[in-house]
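Thread: iron/sulfur cluster complex, take 2
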Amino acid sequence: MLGADLAQPENAIARHDWVVAMAHKLGFALVGITRPEASSRSTELRAWLAQGKHGEMSYLADTVADRCDPRRLLPTAVSIICVADRYHDGARDREREFDDPCEAQGRIARYARSKDYHNLVRDRLHKLRHAMQSKFPDATFRLTGDIQPLMEREVHAQAFNGMIGKNSLLLVPGEGSWFLLGELLTSLDIAPSSRPPNWSPDPCGSCTRCIDACSTGAITPFSVDASKCISYLTIEQRGTIGPEFFGAMNGWLFGCDDCQTACPHCQPKKRRSVDERVGVVDARYAQRLSELPLFELLGWDEADRARLVVSSALKRASLAMLKRNAIVLLAEFAEHHASARAMIEARLCALQRDTQEDTLVREQAAIALAWLAAKAASPQ
Ligand code: SF4
Ligand code: SF4
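Output below.
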């Protein structure tokens, strides 16, 4: 059994080393421990919500009090164990040009190209909890990991797992932000991780590459306006995508990695990492699917989607949402490929008129056709 070979840790410092060793044994790349404290960013979060930057994600506003104080998730908590898996090495996608709309592909963000990370992180957090519970039967626990309201990146930064960059992601200097996060709150007193030497809370300095790379202008330093972010628009937003975003989607069908691939810390490494656990991509995150055919997707039914999204984070988007996203990308394609325009417009017209089709898809097709018509009326 996990941890059975390790002696019972008698004090908070020994428990720190014991938990860290077990979490590494489970394959987590980053492991840090911190105390649950009221967030220092609650004023910022409330202002962000007041400005509507959360878009349709009303659950963020509904849970703001919990989000700003982890002790509300587990009133007995005195420690938070923060873990993370490395899911990508930063390698660039192959640049591809398509002339035939039947071949055009929509890109999938890297975190969603493998098995669903929620399960991969959570399964091992459960194992960690069981191992701890067997040594400390009186301790209480609560698992988070993207399912409970928590300022995840902030607590990971407090645990010295990384720093928060201007794109608001947790990044490890020289290793990037290709990490998926999970947390375990516990009543067990575990000594917090100590501040590494030469630690600076700002990994960015004067760099603005992520801000410059964001095609929708969603980033201001250390804050992302979710309502403008392609990840939100393609995965979280349930309604149509407005014409103001047409031409800025950069080929993304599900999510967006542009502010990561632009970051100097996220580039593929030329030399081995000091800590191989942090530098090597976890084999559990082997990529299965990096893109989807846009034209074909418009003809899918629920069975096609179910085959695709089984045990994948792609299931976050409904079939209608995937079609909505494909429509926007195909309209952009038509704008750049005059020879494909008639074919795409005909398909969009058919979708708009199809009474069997989801309202979201029909409305998005109408928006796309109007955008193409406006572009044709005032070519630049
Ligand atoms: S994910 Fe894409 S759209 Fe969102 S902030 Fe980053 S670059 Fe901008
Ligand atoms: S691209 Fe530059 S500014 Fe943005 S997170 Fe990376 S280091 Fe910071």
